[in-house]
Design a protein that fits this description.
Layout (H helix, E strand, L loop, with lengths): L2 H24 L3 H15 L21 E7 L5 E9 L3 E2 L9 E7 L2 E9 L2 E10 L4 E4 L4 E6 L3 E9 L8 E4 L4 E4 L6 E3 L3
Parallel strand pairs: 1-12
Antiparallel strand pairs: 1-2, 2-9, 3-8, 4-7, 4-9, 5-6, 5-8, 10-11
The chain binds fe (ii) ion (FE2).
Amino acid sequence: MDKRAIARNQEIEAAVADVRQIEKKDGVTRASLEKIKQRLMRLAARQELFTSADYPPPQPGSKRNSCLYRVSEDTDHRFALYVNSSDGNYGTPAHNHTTWAVIVGVSGEELNRFYDRVDSGVKEKGNAVVKQGTGVAFMPEDLHSIHIEAPLINFHMYGLALEELHQREYYKAEERAWKVFPPHSDIREARS
Ligand SMILES: [Fe+2]
């Protein structure tokens, strides 16, 4: 393994170890998720270790313009950390996660819109751009959608691995109905 890969593994391991400790000590609250976000932002500051050469986006013409590289996950599927690599032109409808979720930027920009659940579906209540030095954090029931225009790399971390989340919901606006959100279809194993 080259020096960069060793440094990257050490940085990932140290960050995930801290995230485990924060959750163990503080539980899952908006305050503890803020601490987790701050810790992951420190990891994301090591921009040179997480490039699109290390984590290439899907080939042009692929079914989706965004993929996830799993870089850490515990044996019980908790504390799943992914590097999200996108070529741009990608988005999701409003959805929840049924576990906590934190996104922090490495390079490029991801617009996040936040929603309240209302009788008629969802109502936007704000938005934030995730880029280097910023992040967003969600409690299990919180709703967001993501909107990516240009190439980006960011981290997505979840309390539980995406394949274990069978009851995530998204709002299908055309049908004015809530549906089960299937797991991401392009998750690539990248643990070393
Ligand atoms: Fe999400």
